[in-house]
Design brief:
Order of helices and strands: EHEEHEHHEHEEHEEEHEEHEHH
Distance between the termini: 46 Å
Radius of gyration: 19 Å
Bound molecules: NADP nicotinamide-adenine-dinucleotide phosphate, guanosine-5'-diphosphate-alpha-D-mannose
Oligomer: single chain
Number of domains: 2
Helix content: 40-55%
CATH architecture of the largest domain: 3-Layer(aba) Sandwich
Strand order of the largest sheet: 3-2-1-4-5-6-11
Cofactor: NADP(+)
Protein name: GDP-mannose 4,6-dehydratase
Number of helices: 10
Largest sheet: 7 strands, parallel
Family: Belongs to the NAD(P)-dependent epimerase/dehydratase family. GDP-mannose 4,6-dehydratase subfamily.
InterPro entries: GDP_Man_deHydtase, NAD(P)-bd_dom, NAD(P)-bd_dom_sf
Keywords: Lyase, NADP
Length: 325
């Protein structure tokens, strides 16, 4: 059988690393776009670095995307690169728009010019639902983004559909709800909590500083979610899918569960709430309905909320112990 080729933007990120592993297990030839940094940031992919092909490029640079397409000639393109931290999108709204919105058009243009038969996955987000219009949220729920990031993702969503309708490209949107893992960036609330709990458990720190504890999210495991990305590109027709667990929890509950893993009961004394960490506009409540993905793709999440929190706390304890040796 001919070996399939995939190009992943954002391969150094959380999802990119899990997707690369998954595609390697399916015998793909995997190419990843990486941008220039003054120090290496291959931490998440160092265990597979010799099995993947890294191509220098940036979503801001059209020529580099065209070259990456010409070099890799992929059957499938997964556009995971973005400025993905919602809080930063208020302090860097223009850059967020350049990466997270216009970057999608640049990638689609490169495909249209170099390899129009390539299938394209766009990393769309439940942040697009923002101030939610209905509960749970599904593929037909109207959007009301609440941050420059959410607005940029709505642009990315529609330009992906536009290239499908204008040029007949095979383009899909995966509307993924929050998904986490031990490889999650330290600035996101789940990892901030699990890393903080691990530090408190190991007596390296006395507290965690958090913002809005009432916000609720539908949290799944990133390893489960990247499989859905691939499944979407194996369908006969391009379409858009919500990927979620269908269960949500507050930040408060996540923290409680994380402290529970290390047996700390009086956990509230270790959490400080800072108004500085509240957002100018909050997304209060997200919960997804992934019935379409379950029916059409046969996808369902395997890791439960409890298992996810435990996995992340234990991984952070191991990491801190390893770093102290
Ligand atoms: P992440 O860990 O922040 O990774 C983002 C990746 O994008 C990194 O590899 C980063 O490279 C790369 N990148 C950023 N700007 C770039 C640019 N200008 N050119 C090239 N590469 C650039 O994000 P993630 O959690 O894996 O999420 C993957 C995608 O899914 C993102 O588009 C995110 O918005 C979307 N999404 C995530 C979730 C979630 O819960 N995780 C949910 C819905 C949608 P560096 O390593 O060089 O910074
Ligand atoms: N980051 C952070 N830090 N969030 C906090 C904190 C804190 O100290 N305290 C409370 N929160 C609340 C935020 O206000 C938000 O309501 C919630 O925790 C989740 O924040 P994040 O973990 O930063 O994730 P997010 O939901 O804003 O965005 C993530 O999920 C989106 C999908 O819905 C990112 O991965 C996005 O890229 C993704 O699109």
């Amino acid at each position: 059988m001919v070996q399939k080729r995939a190009l992943i933007t954002g391969i150094t990120g959380q999802d990119g690393s899990y997707l690369a592993e998954f595609l390697l297990s399916k015998n793909y030839k995997v190419f990843g776009l990486t941008r220039r940094t003054s120090t290496p940031n291959y931490e998440r992919i160092k265990h597979i670095e010799d099995k993947i092909n890294l191509i220098p490029g940036d979503l801001l640079d059209q020529q580099s995307l065209t070259s990456a397409l010409s070099y890799s000639m992929p059957d499938e393109v997964y556009n995971l690169a973005a400025q993905s931290f919602v809080a930063t999108s208020w302090s860097q709204p223009v850059l967020t728009g350049e990466f997270t919105a216009l970057g999608v058009t640049r990638m689609l243009e490169a495909i249209r010019q170099i390899k129009p038969e390539a299938k394209f996955y766009q990393a769309s987000s439940s942040e697009m639902f923002g101030k939610v219009k209905e509960t749970p949220q599904h593929e037909k729920t109207p959007f009301h983004p609440r941050s420059p990031y959410g607005v940029a993702k709505v642009y990315g969503y529609w330009i992906t559909i536009n290239y499908r309708e204008s040029y007949g490209l095979f383009t899909v949107n995966g509307i993924l709800f929050n998904h986490e893992s031990p490889r999650r960036g330290l600035e996101f609330v789940t990892r901030k909590i699990t890393h903080g709990v691990a530090r408190i458990f190991l007596r390296l720190s006395n507290y965690i500083e958090l913002g809005n504890l009432d916000a609720k999210r539908d949290w799944g495991f990133a390893g489960d979610y990247v499989q859905a990305m691939w499944m979407m590109l194996q369908q006969k027709k391009p379409d858009d899918y919500v990927i979620a667990t269908g269960e949500n929890h507050s930040v408060f509950e996540f923290a409680q569960e994380a402290f529970e893993v290390v047996g700390i009961k009086n956990w509230k004394k270790y959490v400080k709430v800072s108004k500085e960490l509240f957002r100018p506009a909050e997304v209060d409540f997200l919960i997804g309905d992934s019935a379409k993905a379950r029916k059409v793709l046969g996808w369902y999440p395997k890791v439960t909320f409890k298992e996810l929190v435990k996995m992340m706390v234990e991984a952070d304890i191991d990491l801190l112990k390893k770093n102290s040796r």
